[in-house]
Write a structure and sequence with these properties.
The chain has about 260 residues and is α/β, with parallel strands linked by helices. The protein has eleven helices and eight strands.
Length: about 260
């Protein structure tokens, strides 16, 4: 597997020196850069030793992708900027997680929220297709949003769209939070194009105490045929102190599950 971490471009050199295979940047942060800042980011990645393979955190909470404040034109304008910059950076995937941007207010019909998210994902897929970029639906746990909390729901979006550049990000933290079963993984793997992981206790960086839990899920993913990218996606962390531990754990699991 290729192992990366989700962080800011300011940490690029540290991520390289630690030994990760790639960096995953926040789409919303890249979109917020002015032209000079983006040119600097592009230069750093294009001339650096590791690629940026994708974006997480697609949209800020101020740009709604579902709910009564969802403005399709405004959302598409943001999506076009994110996807254009993703293409310039050489990204292969963009994930549509963004819990704040899809959270529904009380009283808004759930089915309408799913339809909004699905429409936005379709628009993103149209924008990304010519670049060869995958648009990935993602379940986000009920502790962070109230729309599409389970992988089963995210898969329903992917299957409804039935596009050749729409797939799943399987976030193992959200998967565990929602008490989804490891026995369900085989049905998801054909659609999984990227994976995330974090400490299951607090969404921090990985810790040795949960090694066997991480291993069980990754082993099942690999048994079912997934051998792609997996990023550590956590809350705020100390790059030099914590990121090496996460990488060491994932490298060890990858070796042990490749035998």
């Amino acid at each position: 597997m290729k192992i990366g971490t989700c962080t800011q471009i300011a940490n690029y050199e540290a991520v390289c020196s630690i030994g990760y295979d790639y960096i995953e940047l926040e789409g919303l942060a890249v979109a917020a850069m002015d032209n000079a800042q983006f040119a600097s980011t592009l230069n750093q990645v294009k001339n650096g030793p590791i690629p940026c393979v994708g974006f997480n955190s697609f949209a800020p909470a101020t740009i709604k992708i579902a709910g009564p404040e969802y403005d399709r034109s405004k959302a598409c304008e943001h999506a076009k900027l994110v996807i254009d910059r993703a293409a310039q950076l050489g990204c292969k995937t963009v994930g549509i997680g963004s819990p704040g941007a899809r959270n529904l207010p009380q009283g808004y019909p759930y089915e309408k929220g799913v339809a909004d998210y699905t429409q936005f994902s379709a628009d993103c897929a149209d924008l990304a297709k010519s670049y060869g970029i995958w648009v990935l639906a993602e379940a986000v746990c009920s502790g962070m949003t109230n729309l599409i909390n389970t992988t089963k729901e995210a898969l329903a979006v992917v299957q409804q769209l039935n596009r050749d550049n729409v797939g799943l990000t399987l976030d193992l933290y959200h998967f565990v939070y929602e008490k989804e079963s490891i026995t369900e993984i085989p049905q998801y793997v054909p659609y999984v194009k990227h994976a995330h992981i974090a400490n299951f206790s607090n969404r921090g960086q990985l810790v040795e105490a949960h090694y066997n839990e991480y291993k069980a899920l990754i082993s099942e993913l690999k048994r079912c045929g997934y051998n792609g990218t997996i990023s550590v996606e956590s809350g705020p962390f100390h790059v030099e102190r914590e990121a090496p531990v996460s990488l060491k754990i994932l490298r060890s699991i990858d070796r042990e599950t490749s035998k």
